[in-house]
What does this fold into?
Amino acid sequence: MDNIVDEEIFSQLEEHLKCNELNWLMEAGISYDAKLPLMVPLTNKVKKYLEDKDKLIYDEILSPLFDELPESCHIEHVLSHLGDYAALSERSRDKKVIINGSSIDLNTLENAHNLIIESISNAIRSGYVEDKYGNTKFKN
It folds into this structure.
């Protein structure tokens, strides 16, 4: 009986693997083992990158967005929030939104988005990861 059950399970698994539309469920933290940064260290890396690369965008957009969002937010939340502001700006008559009392135009929002994506890309390409103690590691 056990052999029949095992064969049936194997058969079902094999059929799923043959499917053109696969979805995989991975546990949280799998990116660390793959030498990809986790969200909090990646967020810290992006903050530092923008602070060094474009202080104006850091001060007028990134920092205020972190002030608006919950303390537990990370860079993915910021990108979503920034996208929401860009959509609002795009639909507005003057192509601007107010963030933390400052009027920000659509081009500046798009530039901030691009800089964040650039920073994330750089971190992934370089193999930037932090361990649980905040020590920086890079791919070998």
Notes: The radius of gyration is 21 Å.
